[in-house]
Pyrroline-5-carboxylate reductase (Natrinema pallidum), 258 residues
Amino acid sequence: MVQTSVIGCGNMGSALIKGLWRAGNHTVVACDLDPDALESVADYVDRTTSDVSEAAESDVVIVAVKPDIVGAVLDDLDLTPEQTLLSIAAGVSTDYVDARTDANVVRIMPNLAAETRDMAAAVTAEGVTDEVRTLLDDVGEFAEIDERQMDIATAVNGSGPAFVFYLIQAMAEAGVEGGLDEAHAETLAAQTFKGAAETVLRSDRDIEDLIDAVCSPNGTTIEGMDVLWDSDAKANVAEAVAAAEERSAELAAEFNDE
Ligand SMILES: NC(=O)C1=CN([C@@H]2O[C@H](COP(=O)(O)OP(=O)(O)OC[C@H]3O[C@@H](n4cnc5c(N)ncnc54)[C@H](OP(=O)(O)O)[C@@H]3O)[C@@H](O)[C@H]2O)C=CC1
Ligand SMILES: O=C(O)[C@@H]1CCC=N1
C-alpha cells in the first residue's frame, strides 16, 4: 500500500487526511509541530509525528503548510526522485518547489471538500503520475490543467467553497426571514445546493435548460429569476473570483522570484 505523509494538519491537511481515511485504502502519517493539530487527526492516521524527517519516509509527501512556510519545510525534507511531493500551497510555483527537492513535484489546488471525498481539485498536468491520480480520485474529482491556469483555478475551486458557503448562508437567512426555523433553513438551503450541483454534474442538459426546467409557466421561480437576472449577482461572484485570482497571482510573484 502506498504510504502518504501530510505535513501541516490544519484546515486543508486535516481535510485531506479525513478524506483519505474515509477512502479506507491509505496508510497515512500526519506531521505537525502543534500537538493539538496532531491530536485532532490522530484517529484518522496510522501514525503522528512532529519530526519532518519521519514524514519524509513516505512514498507521497503532501506539504500542507502556509505558503510562506513551504520553503523552510522543504529545506528540512530530504526526498529522493522515487518519491512524489504534492504541493498544495496557493501561489507557490512548481519551479519554486522543484528547486528545493529531488522528489517528483506535482502542484495541486485542492479544496476543503476533500474531507467528505467531494473535493474539486486542479492538478498541473506536468509530473502527474497514476499514483497521484488514484489518490485524487479517492477524495473527489480533479482536472489536469496548465500551471498558467493555477491562479484562476485557485479562485474557482480552492477558494470556491467559501463563496458557496456564503451563498448557502444567504439562502438560509432568507428562509429564516420568511419564517423557517434556523436548522430547517440551513438544511434545506445546503441540500438544495448539493442537489443542484449533482444535477449539473449528472445531467446532459446545460445550465440554462436546467433553470428553464425549474421555472414553471406563470409560477414562482421565474419571479425570483427575474430579480437575479436584473441584479449584479453574477458580476459580484465574478468580482469575488477575480479578487482571489489576483491575490493568488500576487503570491505567485512572491514565490517565483527566488
Ligand atoms: N484552507 C483551504 O481551504 C485551502 C488551503 N490550501 C493551501 O493549504 C495550505 C495550508 O492551508 P490551511 O490548512 O488553511 O492552513 P492552516 O494554518 O490551517 O494549517 C497549516 C498547519 O501547518 C502547521 N505548520 C506550520 N509550520 C509547520 C512545520 N514546519 N511543520 C509541520 N507543520 C507546520 C500549522 O501549525 P501552526 O498553526 O502552529 O503554525 C498548521 O497546523 C496553504 O498553503 C494553503 O494555500 C489550498 C487549498 C484550500
Ligand atoms: O485562502 C487561501 O489562501 C487558501 C487557498 C485556497 C483556499 N484557501
